[in-house]
Amino acid sequence: MSNIHKIIRAFTSGTFNDTLKEKVWRWLINPKDTAEKEATLQTIWNECSTEANSDTHKSYRKFRKHVMTPSGPYAFSIKKLARIAAILLIPLLSVISAYFYVQTHTPQIELIQCSVPEGGEQKVIILPDGSEVNLNAGTLLIYPNQFVGKFRSVFLTGEADFNVTKDKKHPFIVKTNHLKVRVLGTRFNVQAYAQDEKTVTTLEHGSVAIQKADSEENLTVLTPNEQLEYNNRNGEFSKKNIDASLYSGWTKGELNFLSQPLKEIVRTLERTYGVSILIDPHLLTPDLYTIKFKKRESIENVLSIITKTVGNITCKQDDENTIRIYSLKKKKGEP
């Protein structure tokens, strides 16, 4: 049994004092060893589920349903679901609950989850402080029903455009799997899809300070029309000057691809239109393309323009939800 497994086992047994509990909460948030932590949490859930009552199972199924086919908003209370919190329910709820516990130091907070499925329409929500958030397809945002403590904290996986209400005494923090984006009042865009290789923060107005998720030291500060890319795999940062309005174009129905490889373009199309796109591996070159659509075009029109731009490729729709992209060039040895 690993040390990670032993720690979580001891934690769920309820033998830790409050000081040690908080240390474990903070350790759970740290992205290091995430896979093993999640595997242990799931194992504990499976072992305890036979002892849970019908309400626990109902809550578990409901939460899973909203994660897999999100339609939010959906609220859950840490206090009300103490039985679930005690066995940590599932990894996602556990880590998010831990994060808000650390930020607010109170178990009384209610968390609201609002999400947009892949292929779904964008959604605009207003946070408790009046801040406005526009959610893109394939996005989940979790936030408290009221902001308490020193910070206004939210948890994001996916892409969102934030217009934050100014409050110098209570900085606004967007927590993703890999980064924390801290602001006082500004407009910015964060793209943090779990399956992507990069987390991208783009600033339109104001200023933001960006940190690694497990660090309290500011790594960099952005000024308007600057963008920071963080490589989720190797931890490297890259900052550049851009036209920030183009990166928030999706909030107005635009679809802009700015110096992106075909692989990233395809993944964006899958999220936007809720389809599966199969592409020949040899077409996934490092070549970059810039293509802009001023309004939401049909997937057929978008793919037609993209294939013409890339050149020597075509696409075929196998069924309602599956599209194949392949080369027009004949392989060596083919007739």
Question: Which secondary structure elements does this structure contain, and how are they paired or packed?
Answer:
Blueprint: H1 3-12, H2 18-29, H3 34-48, H4 54-68, E1 74-77, H5 82-86, H6 91-104, E2 110-116, E3 123-126, E4 132-135, E5 139-144, E6 152-163, E7 172-175, E8 179-183, E9 187-192, E10 198-205, E11 208-212, E12 220-222, E13 226-231, E14 237-241, H7 244-247, E15 255-260, H8 262-273, E16 276-279, E17 289-293, H9 299-310, E18 313-319, E19 322-327
Parallel strand pairs: 6-7, 16-19
Antiparallel strand pairs: 1-2, 2-5, 3-4, 4-6, 5-6, 6-9, 7-8, 8-11, 9-10, 10-13, 11-12, 13-14, 15-17, 18-19
Helix pairs in contact: 1-3, 2-6
